Amino acid sequence: MHVVVIGAGVFGTWTAHHLLAAGARVTLIDAYGPGNSRSSSGDETRILRCGYGPDRIYSEFALRSLAQWRALDERLSGLQAPVWHGCGVLWMAAEDDPYFVATIETLKGGPYRCELLTAQAL
Fold first, then answer.
1. How many Cα atoms within 13 Å fall on the side-chain side of residue 111?
2. For the purposes of burial, counting CB atoms within 10 Å of the CB of 103, is it exposed (0-12), middle (13-18) or buried (19 or more)?
3. What is the pLDDT of residues 48-66, one digit of tens each?
4. Backbone angles phi, psi at 17, to 5 degrees
């Protein structure tokens, strides 16, 4: 089977990667080349976050992808600079913002590390 994947951002590249691992022949096409700053998931600085309001499925997908990012980083170890750099995320929002409230509920209801800080604590 030969599959053409259009778009070499993170989603297209991961799709191509998994198709290759499954035995498909893959052609990956992007108008501006892989990892370009015009893509919504390209450039040098991107984050992996698990906060998506009430949409738990996206939080679960993000958490699953963390293991895959770390595995990719391990496979590339010694070949290039690391692709995964763990760090925290500081998300500032009004306490009564509905999306923020839903995100906190989602994170606290799952296996996610989450700490709420008051303005005074910051």
1. 6
2. buried
3. 889 999 999 999 999 998 9
4. -60, -50
pTM of structure: 0.72
Q: Report how far residue 95's alpha carbon sits from residue 18's, in angstroms, rounded to the nearest whole number.
A: 40
Torsion of CA 34, 22, 3, 77, to 10 degrees: 10
DSSP-assigned letters across all residues of 59-77: HHHHHHHHHHHHHHHHHHB
- Distance between CA atoms of residues 82 and 84, nearest Å: 6
Residue 78 CA from chain centroid, whole number: 23
Integer Cα distance of 66 and 85 in angstroms? 11
The DSSP secondary structure of 91-117, one letter per residue, reads ----TT-HHHHHHHHHHHTTT------
Place of tokens 């700053």: 37
Q: Residue 12 corresponds to which amino acid? A: G
Task: Provide the residue type at 99 as one letter.
Answer: Y
